[in-house]
Amino acid sequence: xxxxxxxxxxxxxxxxxxxxxxxxxxxxxxxxxxxxxxxxxxxxxxxxxxxxxxxxxxxxxxxxxxxxxxxxxxxxxxxxxxxxxxxxxxxxxxxxxxxxxxxxxxxxxxxxxxxxxxx
Length: 119
What we know:
Helix content: over 70%
Mean pLDDT: 77
Distance between the termini: 39 Å
Structural class: mainly alpha
């Protein structure tokens, strides 16, 4: 398998992963909205399933939700893949990282809003 084929497969896998992530986030948002509409005192499925003895919440940035952490993580991974792409294509690694993160971010945003419009 040539380097170009391997890169296209990796890029396709990353795109599918980002789309799956966006659809999963929409599913969680819709489920949470339904749970919020239930009367007070009625535990949601998530509350019944997860009742740890001690709840620990790690905050890197105060006020940031799980979606924000996911966006940061996916952007970082896309940037790293772009740096590897830049290394193998002969261009600047940083430029490749920014290009891949930008294109991936735009694709993820488009998928998120398209899925929100459909759902």
